[in-house]
Amino acid sequence: MSKHLLPGMYGRVSKEDKRVWRTSIVGLVHAVYDSWFIIKYFNDPALNGNRMDGYNPQFELFLALAMGYYAWDLTVCISNYKSYGPMYLIHAALGVFGILIMTSRHLQFYAIPFLLPEFSSVFLNIRHLLKSVGLSKSFVYKLNFIVFLAAYILIRIGFEFYHSVCLVATVYSGNTGNAFYPFAVYFAVLGVTLTTLNLIWLKQILIAASYTLSSKPRKQNVKAE
């Protein structure tokens, strides 16, 4: 599609970067979609009124549609394991099983704190696309990186971590309502794991920031989910 919709930009992408371009386009579409429907249902009474048992059939449909991306992401992480490594495989697998649980009428509220962080991925994928067309030194690239970093810290680290801690406390106390208890435990582990991965990736992102914002050459490629 890029050949027809963005022929000028796509023509500037090197053969080596075309895979990055394609995965970034898919990731960008998904991140925009996720962010849109999560924000749409952010204050939904059915979900917020009961964090364990809250259910919204329309919200479930949006989650089911999002499942396609997570399944694709998992296959990409498996087929490109040497490039992405174990952390991205774990991240993708957690997402697939998490969506499966939430589309079975369990723990739907937690799609909000665990999927809203995809908002930062909007700017991450834009960053990859700008870099692919040789704009890594531009003002737009640097501005996009600043927005990405702010969203990552505020949402992925702050917002997600807060809800992860609250969920762990809830599961530990046994106040899981009618939710299948092993599912609640899984989501508690998922939250802790995601927070740990996010902190590991934050270190890499801050290293990248020192080069991006100071115009120094990058020493390594950084892919952060």
Automatic annotation (TrEMBL):
The chain crosses the membrane at residues 20-39, 59-78, 85-103, 109-127, 139-159, 179-201. Keywords: Membrane, Transmembrane, Transmembrane helix. Its main location: membrane. GO terms for biological process: lipid homeostasis. It is a multi-pass membrane protein. Signal peptide: none annotated. This is TLC domain-containing protein. It comes from Coemansia erecta.
